[in-house]
Each structure stands twice: as structure tokens, then as C-alpha cells.
Amino acid sequence: MIEQEFIPQSYSGAIEKGSFSWSSPSNIALVKYWGKKENQIPENPSISFTLDACKTTTTLKFSKKEDDGMLSFDVFLDGEIKDDFKPKIETFFLRIETYLPFLKNYHFIIETSNTFPHSSGIASSASGMSALSLCLMSIEKEFDANMTNDYFNKKASFIARLGSGSACRSIEGDLIVWGKHNNIKGSSNLFGVKYPYEVHEVFKNFHDTILLVDKGEKKVSSTVGHNLMHEHSFAQERFIQANENLDKLIRVLKSGDLKTFIEIIESEALTLHAMMMTSIPYFILMKPNTLKIINRIWAFREETGLHISFTLDAGANIHVLYPESEADQANKFIKNELVAYCQNGHYICDRIGFGAKQL
Ligand code: DP6
Asked: In the chain, pLDDT over 90 holds for what percent of residues?
């Protein structure tokens, strides 16, 4: 599909008011998106596990307004007005107006809440932007009763991408690819698609325990980080590597080769941070406890031969990944040895999920 297909013809009919609610999960990238072109087009393809427990629930109330020249909305987080969320949402609305031209005809009330604690260091942009996009798509569907589910999901992902790149991977599950890759049929820079090939049983119930090492606000926003890839000496090599890692992952996902899986995803996580450490300006988002946990995971794997691995986002928290068959040992290890490194002992048990749900 091309961008023009997301620009609607004129809407028929008018709706006075209504309300839609969606809950949408977070996701964790295995091959990372880091670097983007104009209009939220990724420099390289990425793939993620959709999560289950970490999610945002959003209710969007809309009512027709008289003047239709201006955007008008209020935002609430956990029932409290959140004016500091407004600039980001305003930018988002302005970016998507061409694709959802009804935006200026309504006043919106956005009520949102997250299952994970606010300022846990877990980015809410993927789950938050995808939940809001799905609510907006539910409104558009009211204007177009013949809209297919496939179009609905693709456009929801397309819209979510314009809010936050990784959000486009949070509409469906359980493995989502975003960004054009030559060997992945249907992959697109414009929206996320379900991974279309065979996936070994071992990856079906994967667990992700998120260790909250540093719950502070992010020191460097993702957008700033992505932009630093423009002048980065290693950028082109990195984009090639991401494509190659995705090629390797296609084979691994089919065969169930956990050893190579671990090699790819840990290398991806460390490369992401290496890119941050080698940009100008450079920065380090890992904390001493991040490194302690990584070393404990490596030692434990060596001692036991189990397949417990880690990945990282653009922050200090660690995502510990392991298959269902090793969940008992992994949980004991996490509780006995890793939780001590978490801020206030906080961690979140999550696992692979199957995408957003309308409520
Ligand atoms: C490190 O999607 O937060 O989590 O498009 O600027 O909103 P924006 O960036 P964002 O970047 C996420 C980057 C990452 C890796 C990933 O999720 O692929």
C-alpha cells in the first residue's frame, strides 16, 4: 500500500458524538529501530515481540463543535488533567490531519491510563500512541462501514507510526515487522505487519521480565537519539547490520535455534547502546546495575546452559527474555539474584501478547 491510500475520500454522514476505548500493549524490539528519515520513515527494518501486561488503556470521547478551524482536546492521565501531554498530542494531530480530516470538526477528551507505573522508565509512547490511533480509527470506521479489518489495522499502525515509530508495532501480535526488508513479504516502511513466516514452538510463549533499574525520566528522548544517527560515522554500517540480523532471525525463528537467537538479540541491544555512546554528542544510558545484571545473566547461562538472555531499550532497564520451558528456573534466578539490582526491588513479569483490544 502507498501513502495516498490512507487519505480518505470525503466522508458521508455526520456523527454528533460518541466514545471509543482501546487497550494497546507495549512491545520490545529484537532488531532495533534507531535512526529515521523525514515523516517517521525508519532507516532500517525492525522486529518486535508484542507484550501483554504492559499496556495503555485509552478512552476517546468526541463531540461535534461549531467552528472547525482549530484542534481542540483535553488529556487526562489516571483521571487528572495532563496539560503537559498536550504539545506532543497536538504535533501528532497536526501530522495525521491529512489522513483523518475529521479531527478539526470535533472536541476530544482523551482519558488514558497505563498498567505500568508512571515514570517507571518504561516508555509509554508505543502503547499510548497506538491506543489513541485505534480510538481515532474507530471513529473513522463510523464514517466508512465497509472498511475491512485489514485496512483498519494497517491504517491504525500507519497513524500510530506518525505519533511514535515503535507504536506502529503495537497494534497486532505476536511478532511484528516494521520497515521494508527484501526477504520479508509485505513489509513496509509505512506500517507494521505480522511476521509472515513459520515460527518455532519455542518462541510462542516467550517471557519478558522487565527489571526496573532506573525509574527516572529519560535523559535523552528517542527523537533526539534517532536524529543523532544522521551524522553518525557508523550509521550506514549499522543499517546494513540490522537488515542482516533480520535475515539471520528469519532462519532462527523457523529452526528454534535459541543460541543464535540470543547472539542476535544481545548484540542488537548492545549495538543500540554503542550507537548512543559513539554519536556526537555521546551519552550512556546504562547504569552500573544494568552491567551487573548483564554479567550475572551471562554467568548464569554459562553455569546452567539455560537460554536466558537480555535486551535493552533506550534506557537502563533490562528485559530478561526466556522460553516458557525454562520459566521456573528463570523466575527463581531473577528473584534470588537480579531483583536486588532493581530500584526498590521493582520488576514486571510480562510475556508475548497478541495485540490491542477494543473495550
Ligand atoms: C530504542 O519509537 O520511541 O525503543 O519514533 O521518535 O517516537 P520515535 O522513537 P521511538 O524509538 C524507539 C527506539 C527503541 C528501539 C525500538 O523500539 O525498535
From this structure: 90
Bridge pairing between strands 106-114 and 46-64: antiparallel
- For 74-86, the pLDDT digits (tens) are 999 999 999 999 9
- Residue 10 is predicted with a pLDDT of 80
Residue 222 beta carbon below 6 angstroms from any ligand 1 atom:
yes
C-alpha cell, 97: 490531519
**Radius of gyration in angstroms for the set of CA atoms belonging to the chain, rounded to a whole number:** 20
286-325: per-residue pLDDT in tens?
999 999 999 999 999 999 999 999 999 999 999 999 999 9
* Number of separate helices (H) and strands (E) present in the chain: 8, 14
161 C-alpha to center of ligand 1: Å? 10
3-state secondary structure (DSSP) of residue 320: strand
How do strand 106-114 and strand 72-77 relate by DSSP bridges? parallel
Residue 291: name the closest of 268, 273, 265 by CA: 273
- Which cell goes with 96? 495525521
CB 200 within 8 A of CB 256: yes
The residues facing 51 across adjacent strands are 352
Cα–ligand 1 centroid distance for 34 (angstroms): 7
Question: Of 173, 200, 202, 174, nearest to 327 (Cα)?
Answer: 202
Q: In 3D, which of 97, 95, 98, 59 has the Cα closest to residue 75?
A: 59
pTM value?
0.96
Q: In the β-sheet with 347-351, what is the strand arrangement from edge to edge?
A: 309-312, 318-322, 207-211, 347-351
Q: Which three cell numbers stand for residue 57?
A: 488503556
3-state secondary structure of 114: strand
Asked if 340 and 197 touch (Cβ cutoff 8 Å), the reply is no
Ligand 1 contact via 208 beta carbon (within 6 Å): no
pLDDT band at 217 (very low <50, low <70, confident <90, very high): low
Within 10 angstroms of residue 175's Cβ, the number of other Cβ atoms is 23
- Chain centroid to CA 309: how far? 20
Ligand 1 midpoint to CA 222 (Å): 6
Q: How many CB atoms lie within 10 A of CB 201?
A: 10
The model's pLDDT over 116-134, given as tens digits with 9 standing for 90+, comes to 877 666 778 999 999 999 9
Question: How many Cβ atoms sit within 10 Å of the Cβ of residue 75?
Answer: 20
